[in-house]
Amino acid sequence: MGDRLTTSTLLVTEEDEKKHEIIGAKGEGKELTKEEKQRLRKEKKQHKKNKKDDRGPPEKEKEKEKASVPAPSKPATQSPAHKAAPVPVNASASESPVAAEKPAKSKAELRAERRARQDSERASKQGKKEGGQQSTSSKPKATPNELQPVVKRLPDHVQVDDPVALKKLAKKLERQQVPLRSDYGYKVSLFSHLHQYSRKNPPTQQISIPVTVIHPSIVRLGLQYSQGIIAGSNARSVALLHAFKQVIQDYSTPPNEELSRDLVNKLSPYISFLSQCRPLSASMGNAIKYIKKEISNIPSQCKEEEAKRILQECIDSYINEKIILASEAISKYAIEKISDGDVILVYGCSSLVNHILCEAFEKQRKFRVIVVDSRPRLEGREALRRLVKKGIRCTYVLISALSYILPEVSKVFLGAHALLANGYVMSRVGTSQIALVAKAYNVPVLVCCETYKFCERVQTDSFVSNELDDPDDLIVTRNGKTHLENWQTFKSLGLLNLVYDVTPPDFVDLVITDLGMIPCTSVPVVLRVKNVDQ
Amino acid sequence: MPGADKETELSERIEAFLSELKRCGSGAGSLRGSAETARETTSLLRRITAQARWSNAGDLMEIIRKEGRRMTAGQPSETTVGNMVRRVLKIIREEYARSRGSTEEADQQESLHKLLTSGGSSEDNFRQHFTHLKANVIEAINELLTELEGTTDNISMQALEHIHSNEVIMTIGRSRTVEAFLKDAARKRKFHVIVAECAPFCQGHEMATSLSKEDIETTVIPDAAIFAVMSRVNKVIIGTQTVLANGGLRAVNGTHTLALAAKHHSTPLIVCAPMFKLSPQWDSALQELVLRSFCFLLPGEILSKVNAHCPVFDYVPPELITLFISNIGGNAPSYIYRLMSELYHPEDHEL
User: DSSP 3-state assignment of B39?
Assistant: First the structure.
């Protein structure tokens, strides 16, 4: 009996603590809302378990109580799932004597709050993966003390061979009134799980004018993506953020709705539309996550104008910090690695690498550049144009001439589309080939990448997750003959136009990021540090 | 005079052949395969043997060497011309030795003892006149021609020994030998072929359409995707322009990258090359094409400020090659030097 009294007093103080925190949280509205949600979810589960019979024997109860006492005093950044699992069990067992004392009041009050919290949680959870997550899944990884089992849904764009997933996607798009884009041409069997679209049929053709559901700047952006007018991961992210600024500017909160929840719901069909135009890049995914988090963190009593202003500022500061200032920092580090007399090889058109080279040239470093290009995109021409305009001495080759030109090269600078958590570099197709041949000739390979492109995915080959571009791009006329003109008539002929490939970390000597120069294998460390900061 | 007519006709033919070679070489890619070049060279050499004025083997060899030098100078990258000249010279030596009665084996073996005792006596050996030498040499050259005509078939006959069903095979550019090889295997087995297009001339496209007409599952990939796709490839089968004496290759550009990628994934690299491509000479200047090949890729004002390179051939070292398949069977790269010594006499290496 004595034990029971002590436990109940402990629990009463616990309850008070929570109530204080809840009242405090309504005023602050930032980190503590998560703590709040955790508490309420826990209590919801406690009440569910109160309806069942007491299971655990008294000894177990005591042990669990001891465990549950230090639990509430832990810092706010703990994820809900971990606490939700063992603590409610403890709490339910220990609270069943308390439940008899005050059941009615807590139940009704908590039910109402629970409904409100579930709505906001659902809204904030949409920002995580495409298609949303189950409510018990945790934040991806990277808590300082525990390692989470991550329950993630497979993204839709790698499930094309699954008819069930396709139907679900079609239903979702219909609900959002976003046109569904159909695949084009014969797909190589190794890639039947990916989409293959034709540039001649952009999804904007299926949208009626005037556009009612999708904001016009988003429609324009989608068209620019699908036609390849905006290409390159930095350019795409910046364009996306500017389009979102426009959307926020034109947004007006409908009555009886909160901006923090409704705006996020408004963004979902836009994102579906953009991913129909062209699958989202890792950098765009991170930017969208950031925006959704910022939107859902807007306090509910904030006025609309004020909220919009805050969001515009957030977006501007994101672009400034993560892209512009990051490239300044990376240039500073990279220029240390460029010495006079260097012959630098670059591949394709990376905005970051071009920026580094232009800065180095301005700082009076003497070097010359070899630009390697590949069909069918021939992006190297753009890089060549920019460098020649600056006055840098350049040489131009196609990627098949790599073994010929590499003995002259002293360093290779590569850009990246994303850095994966297992250290692999995802970049334009052909990058891994350059790294391979450079390794064979003992030429150092340096990858330049901003930290906002780091993503938690892991991948070991270029097949499981990739993008298939328009196969008609490979058709070319040489000597007056176009052999592939009627490739569709040959039923055993397929054209493969890959966009990305992954480079294993043993080919890469150094990764230059805005946080410093790190080896490829330190990417998960950076991700962890970033998540703790957030 | 009939002799003079024959001579002028002969020199006309030689001139025509030379200009044909020059024209083919400076064009984009080769308009004729090397097998055809080899056959034409050999028939021309047969005609020279038949119609030119010579009294002994030494004279004939001089004439052939002279014409051979002119022909190789016309198109240095077309090594089959020089190879055929060397084959014919070897035939002449053999026939001469047979007529004299001594076996070729004894002459060939260079031992220290022989060097000390005989001295430089082999040179005037070729001054003896034999009446049937001409007929013998022409007959031997005819045999050589028959061999040349059957090379592609001989290689394709070995296809089923090397390709099993449901394989994924990668190749690069366009090689008539490899095309015949794969088509022969496709009659009995089902497999997939991935063709790397080999920019900037994209000969791979023609190869792919030709293969897909025989109902072979073919995929065309750009050169940049070679490493990305290599992890799913079971074998790499390529043709080559020349096989060098160390077992290395001079092949179309992009082949070295392909070989490195295959080595990284431990995928076997098989080279289908007939024996007439074996060449003892190494021409260190890898031929480059003129910049005009880039007009369609770069706009004018940039092109004037930039160096653009477009090499035609790549050197592939022998460590990256697994197997050579030729008309006389399969060989490892380490054995090529031996085959070379059987085909050509060491004194003919330098024409």
Answer: helix
Residues 164-183 of B with CB under 8 A from A: none
Question: Could you tell me the two tokens for A426?
Answer: 């995802």
Give the span between the Cα atoms of B127 and B74, in whole angstroms. Answer: 30
Half-sphere exposure of B267 (CA within 13 A, CB side): 26
Strand, helix or coil for residue A395: strand
State both tokens at A274: 């953009």
Nearest by CB: B257 against A388, A396, A433: A433
B260: nearest CB among A188, A400, A437: A437
What predicted TM-score, i.e. pTM, was given to this entire model? 0.79
CB contact under 8 A, A437 and B256: yes
CB A110 within 8 A of CB A44: yes
Interface contacts (A, B; CB < 8 Å): 163
- Chain A within 8 Å of B130 (Cβ-Cβ)? no
* Helix extents (H) in B53-175: 57-74, 79-100, 104-108, 112-118, 133-157, 159-162
CA distance A515 to A333: 10
Q: In this predicted complex, what is the ipTM? A: 0.87
Percentage of residues in chain B with pLDDT exceeding 90? Answer: 47
Tell whether B295 is within 8 A of chain A (Cβ): no
User: Does the pLDDT of residue B300 top 80, yes or no?
Assistant: no
Q: Hey, CA dihedral for A337, A341, A342, A347, is it positive or negative?
A: positive
SS3 sequence, A401-459?
HHHHHHHHCCEEEEECCEECCCCCEEEECCHHHHHHHHHHCCCCEEEECCHHHECCCCC
pLDDT in tens, A450-508: 999 998 889 999 999 899 988 888 888 887 888 888 888 888 999 999 999 999 999 99
| B317 and A CB contact within 8 Å | no
Confirm if A219 and B261 have CB atoms less than 8 A apart: no
- For residues A379 and A428, the answer to whether their CB atoms sit within 8 Å is yes
- CB atoms A378 and B297 under 8 Å: yes
> Nearest 10 degrees: CA dihedral of A277, A280, A284, A285?
130
Q: Is A190 on the interface with B (CB under 8 A)?
A: yes
The C-alpha atoms of residue A409 and residue A397 are separated, in whole angstroms, by 13
Mean pLDDT across chain A: 79
Distance CA A98, CA A4 (A): 10
- Residue of A497, A498, A499, A501 lying closest to A473 (CA atoms): A497
Q: How close B226 gets to chain A, by Cα (Å)?
A: 7
Q: What are the Cα distances from residue B76, in Å, to A451, B45, B68? A: 53, 18, 11
Closest in A437, A478, A490 to B257, CB measured = A437
- Chain A positions touching B183 (Cβ under 8 A) are none
Q: Strand A425-428 relative to strand A418-419: parallel, antiparallel, unpaired? A: antiparallel
Could you tell me the CA-to-CA distances from A73 to A15, A70, A77 in Å, in that order?
13, 6, 12
Dist CA A353 CA B210 (whole Å): 41
Q: What is the pLDDT of residues A258-317, one digit of tens each?
A: 888 888 888 998 998 998 889 888 899 999 999 999 998 888 888 889 989 999 999 999
User: Quick check: B216 and A492 CB within 8 A?
Assistant: yes
Angle at B23 between CA B17 and CA B24, to 5 degrees: 90
Residue A63 has pLDDT above 50, yes or no: no
Give CA–CA dist B198/B257, Å, rounded. Answer: 11
**What is the mean pLDDT of the segment spanning B222-251?**
94
Angle, helices A282-296/A233-250, rounded to nearest 10 degrees:
30
Q: Does A464 contact B at CB distance below 8 Å?
A: no
Chain A residues within 8 A of B225 when measuring between CB atoms: 429-430, 496, 498, 501
